[in-house]
Amino acid sequence: MESVITDFNENGFSILHGILASETLEAVKHECKTLVDALASQRQTEGKLANMYPDADFETRLIRLYENYPDENPTIFRPELHREGFFGVFAHSILLELAGVILGPEIRLYPNYSVRPKLPENKRTEVLWHQDAGYTSKEADVLRMMNVWAPLVPVNIENGCMEFIPGSHKWGVVPHEKDEYYLRIHDDYIKPVEADAVSIEILPGDVVIFSNLLFHRGLPNRAQHVRWSLDFRYQDATQPTLRTTQGHLLRSQRTPEAVVKDAKAWAQLEFQ
Ligand SMILES: O=C(O)CCC(=O)C(=O)O
Ligand SMILES: [Fe+2]
Fold it and tell me: What is one Pfam family matched by this protein (predicted)?
C-alpha cells in the first residue's frame, strides 16, 4: 500500500497486479457481451448485418459486426454501464481503500466512467497525448482525483496499451488543441518529453491508477482483435465535479445513506 501511494505521488501512476478476481472480471465481460449482443440485434434490424456471428469470441465479435461499416462501430460505452456486473469493479474494496488514503473519506465515482472497445486500425479509438484534466477545464488542476484503468484483454504496444510520461502530473494543466477526434497536448509541451514515455503492458486483473494531471495516451490498435478496457475516476466528493454531471457517491462518513449500496441500486441509476 505504501509503495503504491509513493509511486502515485512521485511518478503520477502505480500498477497494481492481479487485484481483480476472475469473478469480478467475468461479470464485467458478461455485461460487455450483453451490450455487443444488443448491438448485433440492432444492426440486424437495421438491415446492416446478414450474420450476427453469435459464436465469435469476445475479442473479435465486434470487428465482425462492423466489418462492412468501419465508421459506425462504438468507441466507448458510458450510459450503458448501469448494469449489475459493472458495480464490482467500480466499488472494488481495494480501489476504494486506496482512494480513501489518497482522497479522504468522501469518495464519488466521477462522471466519466467508460468501457472502451478499441477496434483495430480505427482512428476514432486512437487517444492522443492528453491530461484528463485537460478535458474538463483549466481549473481542473484543483480536482483531487484517482484515475483507474483496467484491461479486459492482455494489453501491449501492438494492441493499443496506455503510455504515460512519469512525473508529468507535477506540471499543472497544460494547453491542449483539438485534433480530429480528441484533444492533444500542444507540441511545445509533449515533444520535449515524449521520449520518456513508458508503455503500460498489463493483464486482465491488473489495474493502473494514475493522476488526472498525468500526460498519457492510448496507442492505436494494430492487432487483429478488440482491445477491451475499462476506465473510471474517483474524486474527493467534497469538491465540485466542474461538469454538468455529478457522478455517484461510493463512500461517505458524512452521508452514508447517500452511498450507492449495491449492484442492484447501481443498475437502477443513470449516467450522471
Ligand atoms: O484507453 C485508452 O486508450 C485511453 C484511455 C484514457 O485516456 C483514460 O482512461 O483516461
Ligand atoms: Fe485519459
Answer: PhyH
